[in-house]
Amino acid sequence: MRLTRDGRFERSDIWREGKWLDLWSVVHLLSGTSVGFSLIFIKFGTIASIVIGLLLLVVYEMWEAIVKIEETPQNRFMDVVVGMVSFLPTFFFFQGLPTSLFILVFGFILTVNITMATFGWLASRKAEEFEQKLRSEFIEQRRRLSERKARFRDTMKRRRLRRTQGRPQ
To answer: How confident is the model at residue 11, as a pLDDT?
Structure first.
């Protein structure tokens, strides 16, 4: 975490938000794959599955905006694109997979997806708590500096007053 010149706190860990792509893009890639496997399992038609997959990815990005997860518009767009880029091949290429292999691959992808999302979420929580701590320390330091500045002004005012009172007129 660092403080920028314009007074904003900026994350510097690997989970920080990128302008276009970031480590969260891997989570969205795995999410698209997980959605693809889910819709294969549910057995909707092709068009319905593509529409539902796209809607799920868009709705998730809308949810992120509602809960105030800060991302650039480009990053939000790319999250949906990355999700669809992984959804489409998954949906079309894994439909004929034997059931046991399907469950094994889907379980592995879903586990990795949930694990990465959990680590990312925990890192984000930690960064948010750290930012709050830095922000409160910064505010406290500003308050103390203001007090010292006021005391210094009072001291200088008293000195000037003593000097002017001690002079003969």
So the answer is: 64
